[in-house]
């Protein structure tokens, strides 16, 4: 793991919480996962932008907290056209919980990503999900073992990277789904050019997810044009009417790909 001095104070605090969190007492989980790449491809075939909508009650970079039932929020996202969901299970800084994920996964039929800060193998067994996030910067040399351990349980690992060096590490570790985070974890600044610079270096057979900073339909179109197979969107959906915000992004296709019916309405 990189030195915490290189991280923003809020991120360093999240990592300290993750390190101190107790491991689950249960043994290894066994997951029959729903395919995230297939769900993203199906959305594109259906004419939707492939959005992974995030149930994020709060975060260090947003104001306020959504108090609604997480299941209701998730169902509204699916109603709005989300191809998959991301659910925060980090409790101290994001207001998430494993129970939220468990309930949401039972209620929807799309793939569900567990969004948390997994640092060691035992933490994989906290709750069943279809996809699990592994952040290359945080796990360092342990990444290949964690990718393998996740797959042994049936998870699809989504490895998050921020630059070309981390992308190479992810590919070397066997990652088939890679998320490129547009947020700099040292300054918490967002720059969509991050995805645009990293994406061309990825092999063609890797599923690429653009993360962070996608706030408008124009942002969504920009990331798709840059090669994103999926868009992970949190605040832009959570800040306001959930179904409508999701629908606005999932319909953010280039004009030339819209159906004739849409262009007449």
Characterization of this structure:
With about 260 residues, this protein is α/β, with parallel strands linked by helices. The chain has one domain: Alpha-Beta Barrel (TIM Barrel). It is about 40% helix and about 15% strand. The protein has helices spanning about 10-20, 35-45, 70-80, 90-95, 100-105, 135-140, 145-155, 165-170, 195-200, 215-225, 235-240, 240-250, 260-265, and strands at about 50-55, 85-90, 110-115, 130-135, 155-160, 175-180, 205-210, 230-235. It has an eight-stranded parallel β-barrel, surrounded by seven helices. Strand 1, helix 3 and strand 2 (about 85-90) form a beta-alpha-beta unit.
Topology:
Elements: H1 9-20, H2 36-45, E1 51-55, H3 70-79, E2 84-88, H4 91-94, H5 98-107, E3 112-115, E4 131-135, H6 136-139, H7 143-153, E5 156-161, H8 164-172, E6 177-181, H9 193-198, E7 207-211, H10 217-225, E8 230-233, H11 235-238, H12 242-250, H13 260-263
